[in-house]
Automatic annotation (TrEMBL):
<dbReference type="GO" id="GO:0006465">
    <property type="term" value="P:signal peptide processing"/>
</dbReference>
<keyword id="KW-0812">Transmembrane</keyword>
<dbReference type="GO" id="GO:0005886">
    <property type="term" value="C:plasma membrane"/>
</dbReference>
<feature type="domain" description="Peptidase S26">
    <location>
        <begin position="33"/>
        <end position="192"/>
    </location>
</feature>
<feature type="active site">
    <location>
        <position position="109"/>
    </location>
</feature>
<dbReference type="InterPro" id="IPR019757">
    <property type="entry name" value="Pept_S26A_signal_pept_1_Lys-AS"/>
</dbReference>
<dbReference type="InterPro" id="IPR000223">
    <property type="entry name" value="Pept_S26A_signal_pept_1"/>
</dbReference>
<dbReference type="InterPro" id="IPR036286">
    <property type="entry name" value="LexA/Signal_pep-like_sf"/>
</dbReference>
<dbReference type="Pfam" id="PF10502">
    <property type="entry name" value="Peptidase_S26"/>
</dbReference>
<keyword id="KW-1133">Transmembrane helix</keyword>
<keyword id="KW-0645">Protease</keyword>
<keyword id="KW-0378">Hydrolase</keyword>
<protein>
    <recommendedName>
        <fullName>Signal peptidase I</fullName>
        <ecNumber>3.4.21.89</ecNumber>
    </recommendedName>
</protein>
<feature type="region of interest" description="Disordered">
    <location>
        <begin position="1"/>
        <end position="25"/>
    </location>
</feature>
<keyword id="KW-0472">Membrane</keyword>
<dbReference type="GO" id="GO:0004252">
    <property type="term" value="F:serine-type endopeptidase activity"/>
</dbReference>
<comment type="similarity">
    <text>Belongs to the peptidase S26 family.</text>
</comment>
């Protein structure tokens, strides 16, 4: 016959007096500190990524119309040129060479000439190495006066805006070829507004 043997609770437990309740204040402070650390780490990571990997930029002015218009936002790849050289047709962000030593202003332009190229503008057309360029990204002729052939030295690039209306683009026709070290990165795509999202 099965039996139930009552156990003396004193054999298995001790009266340790009143139980100490968790300090709610300390728990809240610890959780807040965890959030602060997480946000700080995320901020540092974003700053480092922004410095060395990518950047988000806003288009200003009319110099890249019709490809880009004012207030569009661009994703800039800042690491791509560590592994490859800028090439014909790349849309790039560069430090304004005419700004002086501080160089606080940035420009968005298109690479039309790379080291070793011979660049010339005549009869409202762009010539690269003696060949007239068919530029689908621009819909107007070059309105300003042409110039004699220029041979690009090592590490130098010729950039132009897609808007070739007279005086609309501050580019290599004004400040000459640009140093590779002045190129910040390549504009990969428009990410805002959503209706204009596209790869460049």
């Amino acid at each position: 016959m099965a039996q139930v043997i009552p156990q003396d609770s004193n054999e298995h437990s001790q009266d340790n007096g009143p139980q100490k309740q968790p300090d709610k204040k300390n728990g809240w402070a610890a959780e807040l500190w965890d959030w602060v650390k997480t946000i700080a780490i995320a901020f540092v990571i974003m700053v480092l990524l922004n410095m060395f990997v990518f950047n988000l930029s806003m288009v200003k002015g009319e110099s890249m119309q019709p490809t880009l218009v004012a207030s569009e936002r661009l994703f800039i790849n800042k690491i791509v040129y560590r592994f490859a050289e800028p090439s014909h047709g790349d849309v790039i962000v560069l430090k304004d060479p005419s700004d002086g030593p501080d160089k606080k202003e940035f420009l968005v332009k298109r690479v039309v000439g790379v080291p070793g190229d011979i660049i010339e503008v005549k009869n409202q057309k762009l010539y690269v190495n003696g060949v007239v360029q068919q530029e689908q990204y621009t819909d107007v002729p070059i309105e300003d006066p042409g110039f004699d052939p220029i041979t690009l030295e090592e590490g130098r690039y010729f950039v132009m805006g897609d808007n070739r209306h007279l005086g609309k683009s501050k580019d290599s026709r004004m400040f000459g070829s640009v140093k590779e070290s002045d190129i910040v990165g390549r504009a990969e795509f428009i990410f805002w507004p959503l209706s204009e999202i596209k790869k460049l």
